[in-house]
Design brief:
Layout (H helix, E strand, L loop, with lengths): L1 E3 L5 E5 L2 E6 L4 E4 L12 E7 L4 E6 L5 E6 L5 E5 L8 E5 L4 E7 L7 E6 L5 E6 L13 E5 L2 E11 L2 E9 L6 E8 L1
């Protein structure tokens, strides 16, 4: 998972938590912040809230935890405990001043649900999404702001010597899918 952080820094998520992406080495440099009081456990996605200057990290550990890391104080706190609705992908949308999380559960009656969170990390809206099941549980996902929409980039699949990722443009206010396509790498 990646997020564009303050001053144009690119943040990435590794097995021990978030860090700065060093494109020269290429490695993930640990953030100079105090770890949260409960260590990251199965951290799976993150987003950067540019209005509140904080990094948000979601974890599947325990029942699922949404952490908030202040860029100003370099301190972490537990923002919310979403339990079974821990998102597979997060995005902060600056135009809507909202945090969105994509919950993916291939065994649920509605496999894709887009959650909208308030500033305290509580779910305030849930929209089922009519997406085909193109990924498997626990694989890396990416959700990004795109104009007044969100872009979802699914996990890569090897096809004919290329990596293919399914991509969808989502209206975050209605859950409508505006377009679908693939990204070839």
């Amino acid at each position: 998972s990646y997020a564009l952080g303050p001053r144009g820094y690119v943040l990435g998520l590794g097995s021990t938590g978030p860090g700065l992406v060093d494109f020269v080495s290429p490695t993930l440099l640990p953030l100079p912040a105090a770890p949260p009081s409960t260590p990251f456990s199965f951290a799976n996605t993150m987003a950067y809230d540019s209005l509140r200057n904080r990094l948000l990290v979601s974890s599947f550990g325990g029942g699922g935890v949404l952490y908030s890391g202040s860029a100003a104080t370099l301190q972490w706190s537990e923002l919310a405990n979403p339990n079974v609705d821990a998102p597979s992908a997060l995005a902060y949308h600056p135009g809507l001043d909202a945090l969105f999380g994509l919950r993916i559960d291939p065994f649920a009656p509605q496999p894709y649900v887009l959650h909208r969170y308030d500033v305290s990390g509580q779910i305030v809206q849930s929209l089922p999404l009519a997406l085909p099941m193109v990924d498997y549980y626990g694989e890396p996902q990416q959700l990004l702001p795109l104009g007044n929409r969100l872009a979802y980039v699914g996990p890569g699949r090897a096809k004919l010597g290329l990596t293919v990722r399914h991509c969808f443009v989502i209206d975050p206010t209605t859950g409508d899918i505006d377009s679908a396509g693939v990204l070839l790498q």
